[in-house]
């Protein structure tokens, strides 16, 4: 069961943030193209950074705490998901604060 630790943490992050979408109507998931254009470029940069660190021997992952699904370059699937899930949760949190405090955004 320990091999699901990373996924469990990501699941906890999602559980702590996804409820903001329907409850506060933040509209993050509704504007999915905008979300993709925000998250994917940053994820690509960090995946490349991780791959370089792994190749140089500076960075590694505990195989007992990951699913064991490894992408090219010895990058665990869990790590790729981290670079997608955590930014989405952060954006949901930011938009929730913005909604509650009634901050205006440039797109309104």
UniProtKB/TrEMBL annotation:
GO terms for cellular component: membrane. InterPro entries: Lycopene_cyclase_dom (IPR017825). One of its GO terms (molecular function) is lycopene beta cyclase activity. Signal peptide: none annotated. Its main location: membrane. Residues 5-95 form the Lycopene cyclase domain. It holds the Pfam family Lycopene_cyc. The keyword Transmembrane helix applies. Keywords: Carotenoid biosynthesis, Isomerase, Membrane, Transmembrane, Transmembrane helix. It comes from the Bacteria. Pathway: Carotenoid biosynthesis. It is found in: Membrane. It is a multi-pass membrane protein. The chain crosses the membrane at residues 6-24, 36-59, 79-97. The keyword Isomerase applies. GO terms for biological process: carotenoid biosynthetic process. NCBIfam families: CarR_dom_SF. This is Lycopene cyclase domain-containing protein. It comes from Virgisporangium aurantiacum.
């Amino acid at each position: 069961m320990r091999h699901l630790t990373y996924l469990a943490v990501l699941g906890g992050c999602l559980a702590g943030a996804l409820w903001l979408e329907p409850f506060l109507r933040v509209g993050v998931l509704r504007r999915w193209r905008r979300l993709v254009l925000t998250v994917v470029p940053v994820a690509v940069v960090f995946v490349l950074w991780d791959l370089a660190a792994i190749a140089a021997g500076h960075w590694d992952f505990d195989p007992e705490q990951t699913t064991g699904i490894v992408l090219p370059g010895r990058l665990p699937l869990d790590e790729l998901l981290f670079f997608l899930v955590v930014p989405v949760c952060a954006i949901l949190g930011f938009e929730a604060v913005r909604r509650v405090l009634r901050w205006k955004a440039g797109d309104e």
